[in-house]
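[job 0412] stage=complex_fold ligand=sodium ion status=START
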Amino acid sequence: MAKIIVVGSSSVDLVVTAARRPGAGETVLGEGFVTVPGGKGANQAVAAARLGAEVTMIGRVGDDLYGQEILNNFKRNKVSIEYVEPVTHLASGTAHIVLAEGDNSIVVVPAANNEVTPAYLAKSKDAFREADILLIQQEIPEDTVAYVGELCREMQLPLLLNPAPARPLTEEMIANATYLTPNEHEAKVLFPGLSLSEALRRYPNKLFITEGSRGVRFFDGEQEVLVPSYKVDAVDTTGAGDTFNAAFAVALAEGKPIRECVRFANRAASLSVTKFGAQGGMPIRREVEEQMQDEEARHIE
Ligand code: RIB
Ligand code: NA
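[job 0412] stage=complex_fold status=DONE, emitting structure tokens
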């Protein structure tokens, strides 16, 4: 069983559906409102656990009802919360999402997630020793991501950095990551002077640019490879990237060849978008494997 550590955010997603999103100064009437579990860190932890990994979350929640819901959701999904300590003086993180015209727009308020600090991480270092891979994103402070990068290098623990949401990274941070998985927008922020192809060539088998419905691109040392994504009727793309990253980490931790890892992750992500909510639709292992077997069977026919 792959052992995965996730360092990151946990939030409640407050999701409004509307025919269209309002412009500045404008009010529109919405159609529905629900709250569901979210936050990139929590989403990735839950996705990895559903895919059969043993997952330890390192994060913070507020000492409030949302915090309780977040912890219960981790428990339901068999994610270890030994290293998720409530913060007494802050609210839980929230993400304010509008789903309109087939796409989402999101304002994230990190709140307690800002307390995932280097000092907090230092206390959780024990968890690092037995892990196969560490998964981190950017809804927590920048210096924490840098600190975790150094720890992983020292401890020779493979690090998958999902640089979302976008912010620039130092050369050192990029060097400390074993795998980097920006989308196109995030890749442009990371490598401002370079075309995406130039960036890929600079980081063979390390940089994986996710291009949504097109697929995932990387440079394998000899050529640029596009691993296509699977066509599905998307209901809600929120959390697709998180499912991709979690599944990629699981497959990498299991030692599968890189291209196979990307295929597995694309499959998992394609299933996740068929249901509402960031974590709705995140598949269990068997669902992904059945789909992959169907695909192979079709190739043989
Ligand atoms: O990646 C999707 C997540 O990003 C949502 O669950 C929301 O919490 C936002 O932070
Ligand atoms: Na979903």
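The chain has a mean pLDDT of 96.
[job 0412] exit 0
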